[in-house]
Amino acid sequence: MAHSGMINRKRDLAARGVQQLLRDAWAIAHPYWFSEDRWAARGLLLVIIALNLGIVYINVLLNEWNNKFYDALQDKDYAVFLHQLTLFSGLAGLFIVFTVYQFYLNQMLQIRWRSWLTDRYLRAWLTDGAYYRMQFVAGEADNPDQRVAEDVRLFISSMLNLSIGGMRAAVTLISFVAILWGLSGALTIPMGDSSIKLPGYLVWAALLYALAGTWLTNRIGHPLVGLNFEQQRYEADFRFGLVRFRENAEGVALYHGESDELRAFRGRFHSVVRNWWDIMRQQKRLTWLTAGYGQAAVIFPFLVVAQRYFQGQILLGELMQTAAAFGQVQDSLSFIVSSYTDIAAWRSVVERLAGFQSALELARIQSATGAGIHHVDRDGGRLILEGVELDRPDGRPLIANVSLSLGRGDSALLCGPSGAGKSTLLRAVAGIWPFGSGEIHSPSNTRALFLPQKPYLPIGTLREVVSYPMRAGGVDDATLRETLEAVGLPDLAGKLDESSPWALQLSPGEQQRIAFARVLVQKPHWLFLDEATSSVDDATEAHLYRLVRDRLPGTTLFSVGHRATLRPFHARHLWLRPDGDGPASVMEVTGSDNHNGVTKKSNDLVRSSRRVQVRKPS
Fold first, then answer.
1. Checking DSSP bridges between strand 526-530 and strand 397-407, what pairing results, if any?
2. Contact, 339 vs 169, CB < 8 A?
3. What's the CA gap between 400 and 387, in Å, rounded?
4. CB-based contact 327:338 (threshold 8 Å)
5. What total of structural domains would you count in the chain?
6. Is 219 exposed, middle or buried (0-12, 13-18, 19+ CB in 10 A)?
């Protein structure tokens, strides 16, 4: 009884697994079929189905042709032989046309579907900072680039090929079962003194043959599902490591870290190779079965029909027609056997895309429900943080009870030891840090710009790099050239149309100057700088800050930094003070140039009616 209960539980789990797989596949697929492209997609699908049905019908006609053609050979009837060759030429021509166009239209549908689904995933990934939030749940959606670029393609091609192939197998089965039933006659099975007649015995033989092959294939090939899933992940990890190495080539060269990188590459590729060997061994076992199964299927129908032929009950033509019909029925019933490797690969792709879609949905829900820190657009010209608590991704508190108020034209400098959470506070203000609580009130209808320590330089022309994230055509060339000269990059002023790997070609200091050029071009109302001058010398730092204060006097300036040279450019000086193992707190430094001077808690700053005026540095 216990053994029977265990078998039933395994059966239930397997059934639920298949049901979940189908639900996940439908959740990924169905939005396209109800999208703005639905009529073109449905039309293409109907034509593809019609062409496949046409191919099945031609196979039925060819099956009848077998009978007449081989009878003509046996009777040495040359006139019938020539007529059947002419008929075959016409059927073969139609078969070729139908096959070519169903393949061509299938590919057309694939690229339309892939374009739509890729765009949908890209928009969801880039909306509301989902791409940033998903970094903290990497177990659910590792390597999102590979899921968008590779898994979408594999899902669509496999889904169409398997579904249309399954449909054609079902129609072929229905068509040829009737033919095979009529050709089979009845098999007399002796039962002692009596006998039993089994009608359509070839149909039952084909069914038993296919069921045995399907059961064995599933039993042997089931591990391929998990192995294919892991292979996709290991391949993506290896590619990611190579891309990351290329993007940080200078750092590796300066550290002379080639041996360490080689060791890491070998480690990642070892996972690829090890899993591939597991796939090879499993596919070898499966191929022993499928190859033997396919070869036995060639001779099996002749074995079961040969007795009737040699007894003179049927002619050569009927023998060949019966063997061909048996082959079509057996092949249709064996669809899972012949497609098992493709099904295993498709299942792993569905699981990866389902995980990616779940992570995107979680990020969307967090953004929509305001989970974590609540951002509110408000009228007026002030940025207000009320009771903001910041946590680390593992839930440990990082910064406690931040309450600040900044008005238009204010300037403030936040200092503190490394690792205390200064940059994380800026991420919270930007709306991309999801861990914490409290409210941040931001002025509506204003432009804000955040400069990280390492600026992002997109792939493209220098004009696009300086204008980012604005459209390149939104700023005239004269302004771009003048701005590059103003930030100390006159040699680049004449290279606006050049496309280069700017992130690799420009030094860190030059990249930070590019970031300040963006500030001068885009003229934000609020400017947040996170160690944005850490790679330039003191004189250049002073020049860049003076440019901002002179050209954008109404812009609110909030900087994070360690250098004392930044203090003259800010009217308010804040200090992020750690508290042992507890969360840090933000204090304001008053009456002293060092953080050990008189301080006020940040929540007192909001209640204070005092407004510190921005003083321009001399």
1. unpaired
2. no
3. 8
4. no
5. 2
6. exposed
Closest CA to 332 of 92, 102, 60, 16: 60
Calpha distance 547→486 (Å, rounded): 8
Same domain assignment for residues 519 and 389: yes
- Say whether both 382 and 266 belong to one domain: no
pTM of the model: 0.69
558 and 424 in a common domain: yes
CATH code at position 296: 1.20.1560.10
* 129 shares a domain with 48: yes
Q: Are residues 284 and 304 in the same domain?
A: yes
User: Is residue 190 left, alpha or beta, with left meaning phi > 0 and alpha meaning psi from -120 to 50?
Assistant: beta
Q: Are 345 and 228 in contact (CB under 8 A)?
A: yes
426-440, 521-535, 589-603: range with highest mean pLDDT: 521-535
Tell me the CA distances in angstroms from 596 to 94, 415, 592, one per residue in order.
89, 12, 8
Structural domain for 540, as ranges: 374-457+506-607
Same domain (yes/no): 93, 200: yes
CA distance 240 to 80: 65
Verify that 282 and 380 share a domain, yes or no: no
Query: Is 378 part of a structural domain of the chain?
Result: yes
Residue at 348 is within a domain? yes
**Chain segment 19-45, per-residue pLDDT in tens:** 888 889 999 999 999 999 999 999 999
Distance CA 473, CA 479 (A): 12
Q: For strands 382-391 and 397-407, give the pairing.
A: antiparallel
Residue with tokens 């299938």: 106
Instruction: Tell me: do 232 and 277 sit in the same domain.
Output: yes
Q: Using an 8 Å Cβ cutoff, are 520 and 541 in contact?
A: no
- Quick one: DSSP state of residue 564? G
**Residue 144 β-bridge partners:** none
Angle 2-33/340-369 helices, nearest 10 degrees? 70
